[in-house]
Amino acid sequence: MNPRGKHFIDAVDPDENQVNNPEQQVRDAAEPVEPQWETKGTPTPQSDEKSQGKAEAPSDASAKTDEAAAQPVDEVEWPSLDEAGPQRRRRSKESIKRIKRRRRIRTLLIVLLVIGAVAAAGWGFVNHSVNQGKKKIEEKTEKVIKAKGDTITYNGKKYALNKHMATVAFIGFDGRNNDDGTQKGQSDTVMVVALNTDTGEARGIIIPRDSMVAVDTYSNGSFAGQVTEQLCLQFAYGTDGDNSSALTAAAASRVLDNIPVDYYYTLNIEGVAPINDSIGGVTLVPTQTVPGTSVVEGQETTLFGTTAEKYVQWRDTTNLTSSLDRTARQVSYVQAFASKVLSSAKSNPAMLISLYQAMGDYTWTNLGLDEFSYLATTMLEHGLTSFDVVTLQGTMQQGDTFAEFYLDQDNVKQTVVDTFYHPVN
Fold it and tell me: What is the H or E stretch that residue 136 is in?
């Protein structure tokens, strides 16, 4: 399997469509050539004949020349405008500064207009994407209504189905050999995120990885029937990342009283560190000390890089309940991560799209950008900055080889009713 999801969005090349807008240099007017007009006291070159003629009256010429030479330079006689040829006027430094300032302002206005046009087109695209996503989500919701009906009766009370629910199976996948000796290709985390698009309320339902559930098995690509195995094994029966994710989402649906789970979002564990760092780290209070790291139970810390990965991935395989301990750490991480992302998105909604793109290199998903944009917009409109996460309860037992978790069906049913229904008066 390729850990690079095929539904990822390539980031835009920063050199593509780049607008070159170098600062315009204002050149001074060409230096005017020094005028060659005749001035008093400055002899004008004469032809030989005229020079000889002047030699006949040296006394008068000498007197005039001496008199002109005695005049100060400021009194140089300039020709009239009619006599002078067209010349370019020298600009003062203040004039040049004003010209530069006007040109900078004009350039800035042009840039702002371009940005405004691009932004308008961008928001038009976002609105179109949100509307398309809403349409697709509503089509999925209609399937839930057809599959489950409008109402149910539970413990003698009548409940109506919430008709504006979107469900996504968030799956954590580790492509490396597991630390408990099992082979790679299993899902370490399965959490169904249920979002009520009418109220903006969201809940994550974690199904422990060792839950003994009905698993679809395949042999040589053909369906070989259902067996009761750990939920984490369902992923290994798929032919590729997308097929494995779809099978796991279907298994999660069966656990949750067959509530349809049409979307999946599978993250390779190797993506935790770069995604964690892309939002500036995640601050939380650890629920457990993690050996080989600075993470200490109860002491608030900010996770970066591989420390974040170890926090959500490590477990003590000598302890029967180690997978449940890891689940508790994962819950604390998911809540802290979501809280930071949603809080930041309130002032910068575009960061959700950037995050979606950043996660694309490490995911398989059928949750398109349209649906993602709609769900993200819905959460922001309702001011959602965090969401509730619950873990299905049950009993952990030691199996023949590995740990086995048996779900409390009453707890499962109550969780489904609380999440997907509301009481009818």
Answer: helix 93-148
Which segments of 247-383 are extended strands (E)? 263-268, 282-284, 301-303, 363-365
Structure tokens at 424: 């009818």
CA distance 202 to 208: 19
Give kind and range of the element (H or E) at residue 404.
Answer: strand 403-407
Average pLDDT score over residue span 347-371: 81
β-sheet bridge partners, residue 301? 284
**Interval 267-284: pLDDT, tens:** 998 899 999 998 999 999
End-to-end CA distance of the chain: 51
Measure CA 277 to chain center: 12
Q: Give the residue among 424, 108, 411 at the shortest CA–CA distance from 257.
A: 411
- For 381, how many CA atoms within 13 A lie in the half-sphere containing its CB? 12
Q: Model-level pTM greater than 0.85?
A: no
Please say whether the beta carbons of 245 and 221 come within 8 A. no
Rounded mean pLDDT of 238-256? 94
Strands 388-391 and 165-174: unpaired
